[in-house]
Amino acid sequence: MDHQAPKSGPVATPVATALSAEPLASSANAAPAEPPVAQTPAEKSAAEIARSRQGKAILLMCLVCFTFGMQDGFSRYLGGKYSPMFIIMLRFWFMAVFVVVLAMRAPGGIRAAVHSKRPVLQVIRGVLLVLEILVTIEAFVRLGLIDTHAIFACTPLLVVALSGPILGEKIGWRRWVAVGVDLWGS
Fold this sequence. Notes:
2 domains
């Protein structure tokens, strides 16, 4: 095995520089180290942006789950004392405050937010939403939160199971096995 001899000349290591009486010529002329400059958003790497967005998304998802859980708990509590229609009215009034604030900040303002190409479908969608919340509050009162959420957790499975016979979609055997296992676990 052939070893190469080390190259001659001074080695610029922190220990060698600190111990030598004369600093190296190249290090003597070097400018003092500047503190790192904060990067602009354009200079950040895609990985850093993805990590920051991922963390933000996780926090927002936790906040949303907590908010909906509290909302369901309040609906269950109030459902035992007040009419479900009154509770729905309260929910929509509080939601309307946030929607109006967001719409005012958006380009075009409220006028652009309320404009719809299909107003009849929007009204039907709103009525269906009110009916769904009405049924949900009744379920919270009669079945309790746990049983109601267990039923709601099965909804995506039922959609997959019924999409074949009703919509004519082809569902592979792996999805049927997943639906069966999940329904068995529920």
